[in-house]
Design a protein that fits this description.
By secondary structure, the protein is of the alpha+beta class. The protein is built from two helices and two strands; from the N terminus they run E-E-H-H. The chain has a domain at 52-91.
């Protein structure tokens, strides 16, 4: 990896090599004395998939367990009851 020293002007601006012209960059504050500058790979927003588009197929066992829990939900545990009481007290 090539290392290069550059000076900043009075407004803390640094002049980057021409290969960074018209590029989107990522500044990473690695430590108090080190900042890493790298070119970002920009992806068009229309090309990004939605999480909802990714289908996850449940196994038969998982599907049956899920449907059983919907039909017969378990009793709330003491931690959930305590949290619900605190929430109710705050909401008045």
């Amino acid at each position: 990896m090539e290392s290069e020293t550059r000076m900043t002007d009075a407004k803390a601006r640094v002049i980057l090599p021409k290969s960074f012209a018209n590029a989107t960059v990522i500044l990473e504050h690695v430590s108090e004395t080190e900042v890493r500058i790298r070119r970002a790979r920009v992806v068009a927003e229309d090309d990004l998939p939605f999480a909802e588009e990714a289908k996850t197929t449940l196994s038969d066992r998982d599907r049956d367990r899920f449907l059983d829990l919907l039909a017969n939900p378990p009793e709330p545990g003491p931690t959930l009851l305590k949290a619900a009481a605190r929430h109710k007290a705050r909401r008045g």
